[in-house]
Structures are given as structure tokens and as C-alpha cells.
Amino acid sequence: MNVVLLGAPGSGKGTQATTVTGRLGWAHVASGDLFRHHLKAQTALGRQVEGYMNRGELVPDDVTIAMVRERLAQPDIAAGVLFDGFPRTLAQAHALDTLLASLGQRVDLAVYLDVPDEAIVQRLSGRLVCRECEAPFHAQANPFAACPHGKCAGEHLVRRADDEPETVRRRLATFHRQTAPVVEHYRAVGVLVTIHGEGPVEAIGRAILEAVDDTAQDAAGAVRAGPR
Ligand code: AMP
Q1: Using an 8 Å Cβ cutoff, are 35 and 42 in contact?
Q2: Ligand 1 pocket, residues with Cβ under 6 angstroms
């Protein structure tokens, strides 16, 4: 299955994607994480995208699509893929449709985590991420308790440069202008499920897993029923 997790920056995509892929044993394809790895390793791609990321702007579509296409060549995608932070523009959504079609697949489910802007600004002002593994925490709502990989004691937690308030406002504006049409694209295709993204993290995770389960069962039912 291919599932796309949509939502504004700070809507909880990263947190939920980590839990859901851990539970299902799926590949977690997070374009933001991929870019940050390139940035940290100072690859040519990393140097190319640094300015966009620091300004809170989207990296151009051709660069982003090429990077995701390369990621989808890895064998671990066979178990199932959860896309996190991709696609963020209509052009990326169409490119993903084409890419998956070339593999005989499609986007089976798009989950939109709906969180009001005021809650996002509040959340991102307290967000902390691990510099080593990208695990997200929150100073008040989700303070560091234990390393998910059992490797550190929280000494690598930092505030992301693009979580500064001014940059957050720019990223939110970008979301409404460029990513909201992607939500509408999946609604039109008939694969969209909207989940209210405020409330206990575990309850939201359960709602996502239920949506995945329902989609898998619908697909199995359609196979049993055969072509109409
Ligand atoms: P994220 O961690 O998903 O919030 O992404 C951090 C930054 O990486 C974004 O503000 C963009 O600069 C860049 N980025 C991540 N995913 C994409 C994408 N699908 N398209 C364009 N830029 C992206």
C-alpha cells in the first residue's frame, strides 16, 4: 500500500508517521528528512536546497521529485510506503501518480491531519528535534523521556532553524497556497480521509491505523469480488 500523510508543518505528520511505520514495518519516506540528511552531509543536493529550507520555501519540484524517485528505487518500499511531507504541490502529486503507475501501483489512501493555524504556531514554537535521528519532541506537550533508538539521553535536541516564528508563518502561507490543492486532488480521486489533528497523540495514531486498515480491507474485498 501507498499512503500519503498530508498536513501543515507542525500538524504532527512526523510523529505519527514514525509510529505508524514502526507498527506496520513500512518504509517512511519523508522528503524533509531526506533533504536534511543531504544538508548535514553537505552533498551537492544539500548545498542546492539549503537556502530554500532556511527561508521556509519549497524546494523546486524537479529537484524534489528526482530525490523521491531515487528513494523509491530502494527495496524496502515493497512492504508499504508512508509518504510524509510529499507531495506538497499539484505537480508533485501528479508526478507521484505517474511514478507509482509505472510500478503498477497507486496512492491507496491520503490522510489529511487537519490542525488550525493558531495551534500550529503554538506547537512549533516549542518543538525540539533530535539532531541525530530527527525524532520530534515538544518542550511542553511531548518532552523527551527516552530515546526511541536507545542511543542517547536527549543531549542532541535542537530547535530547527525553520521553526522560528517568522519562518513558520511563511511555511503556513506556503501550505495554504500550494499544498491545500493537493488535499483537494486526493478528495477528487476519492482516497482522502480527514482526521482532526488535535488531541491525544495515541488517539490520532489509532485513527490513522484504522483508516489504513479500512483501506486494506476494501482492497481485499474488491479483489474477492473480482472485476465488475
Ligand atoms: P519538513 O520537514 O517536511 O517540514 O520539510 C522541511 C523543508 O524541506 C521544507 O520547508 C522545504 O524547504 C523542504 N521540503 C520538504 N519536503 C518538500 C517537498 N515535498 N517539496 C518541496 N520542498 C520540500
Answers
A1: no
A2: 9, 31-32, 35, 52-53, 56-59, 64, 85-86, 88, 92, 162, 171
